[in-house]
Amino acid sequence: MNQSSPDCLCVGIIVADHVCEPVEHVPDPGELVLTRQMDLTIGGCASNVAVDLVKLGITAAVAGKIGDDVFGRYVREALEAAGVGCEQIVESATQDTSGTFVINSQGEDRRFIHCIGANGEFTGKEVSADQVRRCRVLYLGGYLLIDAMAAKNVAALFEVARAADVVTVLDVVIPRQADYWPMLEPVLPLTDVFLPNDDESHLITGLDDPLAQAERFRQAGAGTVVVTCGNGGAVLAGDGERLKAGRYPVEFVDGTGSGDAFTAGYIYGRINGHDSRGCLRYGSALGASCVRSTGATTGVFTAAELREFVESHELNITPA
What we know:
The chain has helices at residues 45-55, 70-82, 129-133, 151-163, 181-184, 198-205, 210-219, 258-271, 276-290, 303-312; strands at residues 8-12, 15-20, 38-43, 60-67, 85-92, 99-103, 111-115, 137-143, 167-172, 193-194, 224-228, 234-238, 241-245, 317-319.
């Protein structure tokens, strides 16, 4: 791949995930519960989206921060093995690589225990204007999780992208209830595609209806807003269109990374010139492929598998 001029530059959080296959229940204090398998996998929005895009034949590079430790070495080696450009990954001299324990319990949503680690030092200033101008899509993932990634820094990157006709895609990770509007208001008017889930959108807007959430983000200046809703599918609000998409039925094992896979599928559709309905189909299909196995990227379709799946399965998309 051309690492200096990737199709998509993925900026943001890089994580080493520790993921268990579903357990019968979450352990009580002092209890030992067995799982059939526990994996160390790539995690973090920027890493996940980049790996998924490379699987789809889209060149991608990651810009972020890791520690000088065994998990940082694992992440870098795994990304390089996947074909992701890693030249813009920097090492912290003081912090370990970010990590997440992903606990899957049968019949319940997954639980996360997260250490921010080296991601907490990443400001976004590490990415140069020239690097932004050389890509087709600038994706920034994990926004709102890291205080150092300030709104002014993200807005500056997106301003460079906007001036160079580079598509800007924004995703968030929200750890707690707080007022996030001061972080979003400078950035959303520079965002071409905003992709939160409905839980995140509720925490930000206080609204329960996903379409109302999307409309609120549109009012704040975002171009196209896609709110993903898990089993409820997704809603899209853009210029002159409001759409509601269902979901593709697949066997569920682990939801880790499914939102990032949706984002990668949506970007794939956008890069290949598809309209909003086509992008929703590709995003929904790639997200569905992700949940079939443990890990954020392990089960994700290749480009050929994605196209075959979309062509052979119907996704219900209606005006919202």
